[in-house]
Amino acid sequence: MERRFPIVCFCLLLAHLFAVDVALAQQTDKQLIELNNEAMEAYNNLDVSKATSLLEKALSVAMENGVTGQLLVATYINLGVVYVGGQNNKQKGLDQFLRAFCLDPSVQLDPLIGTPDIQEVFLQAQQIAGSGGCSAAGIPQTAPPPTVPVVQPQQPMVQPMVQPTVQPVAPVQPVVQQPLPPAIPQIFHQPPSPQVSQAPLPIYAEIPPNTEIDRLYLHYSGLGMDTFKQVEMIPYQSGFAYQISCRDVWEPRVRYYLTAVDSNDRVLATAGTAQAPFEALVVTALQGPGPALPGAQPPGVCKDVECPPGLSGEECAKQPFLQIGDGCDTDRECQPGLICDEEICMIPGANADGLDIEGIEKPEKPGEFAKGFFQLGFAFGITSIYSGMIADAPPPENAPVFLDDGRFNPDLPWVPDANSFDNQEEPQRYPSDECAADDIVTGVIINEDGSRSIQYPSRWCARINSPGLVLLPALRVAVGYFVLPRLSVAGVFRFQFEAGAGTLANMLLGGRAEYIFYGGETARGLTISGFLGATAGQIQAKPPQNDTSQGIAPFIISGIGGAHIGANVRYRFHKNFGLVFSPEFDFQFPAILMNGDITIGAEAAFF
Prior knowledge:
Helices cover 18% and strands 29% of the residues. It has helices at residues 4-44, 48-64, 70-87, 90-103, 116-137, and strands at 188-189, 195-196, 201-206, 215-221, 229-232, 234-236, 239-244, 253-261, 267-271, 278-283, 339-341, 344-346, 372-385, 414-416, 443-446, 452-455, 460-462, 468-482, 487-496, 507-518, 525-537, 559-574, 577-591, 593-606. An 8-stranded antiparallel β-barrel has the order 13-18-19-20-21-22-23-24.
């Protein structure tokens, strides 16, 4: 019995020591997990120095306690991520990744933290380890114990950070750099945090370098959208970005997915699908800042500024909140988070060179319609002529008014009025429909001595051989201003290239009022309006004559009063320039004439 006592005591001592070792091992594992978690939380909060220090402390604890399993592998991986993603130190990151591969060749990198830079270094370490790099570096390779999850950060951080104050433990020896294998096409994306309703939603993603990926597309669907809307993402920093319009961001969520294509539009990689899309939560209020693109501030809510006291809603212009790709004139017109870059709303710092803006939907630009305008155009006039229209002047003195027998010359382009007589022995009176009487009888006059003299007609009309239409080209000018959003007043001027005699023989001067029926809310685009006005002046037509007129012929007078009605069809390519098409009908009185002008011209807009 006395001999058994020492043996029992020795066994109890061994059991106690084993239990202590197990407890110490469990305590060490717990400490390593806590250090990794705390380090990656600091890394996620941009405290790279603290993250580096905690991970290097974790390496020291693992070395002191002989830890060689997956917790050590996880620590190497996390430290490599911090070196590359936080400090932009690829060599130090390569050392840590290589140590991890030498301990566990099957280790994988979580895509959520695998930015292109981190992925590049990770693949390089994998290639070096697979080609004997562990032996060259003097790092033994051991079989890993049962798998323990690798601690990962919550979000990838891609900005370069400050250098750490603590050096890594036991760096590996320099190794020969190997050429990188072709990168696997994939999309690295972290879904955004919740966004407030009616605020733009920023989306950011990255792809590995040296791939065949040519473009990255965002497909999204908000409240009330039956299908996914496709937009091209824009090169931004080391990835691609887009800002979903605040008009499409409503509670409770925005669904979306990403596709990467090559130059032939073949899909090479996706993140999410139409059947299983990402979901960005949309809420009524946020406790903290909303989501933002890397290096940018969270965009605000699309909210109209209150109109100052004393101004009406029409006088106080509302902010249009233009989205990416919309035409703009100032930054204020674009949605929060965007600027007006070369008259296009764009993400600040984005590289839009070579971007197919036509691939981005560009609705009409809401903006202030320029109120002042100057129109200059060429008018194709069409005038109606008929018998009895008054000539602008009598025949010239050398014109053959009478034939040898004393009758009026029937080939003369002038026709005397109906109460004029020729100088025949039996005077002849002209029909009134050819030229109306003016109540002044003219013709043969018998003098006191019995002789006869001729008193020429007091009115002449133009001879109309074939009633109908004649062409009458002219130049038209209009200068006006919109006194109300849809109502303008304008002065008009019409200049006829060829005309006869009389007051304002070749021009019209007047004014008009115009009302817009379609458009007018946009600085660019189509507007359709009608106008009505009055003029003073003449539109003079010249009837075609027969070959015997010897090149002399009268013009037809009209006016001197007039009224017109018509329409303006504008299209402004720019806030200050556009084209105009104007059909118009003119009615002249008391000398009646009806004319139609079709004007094609340009419009300069201002104010």
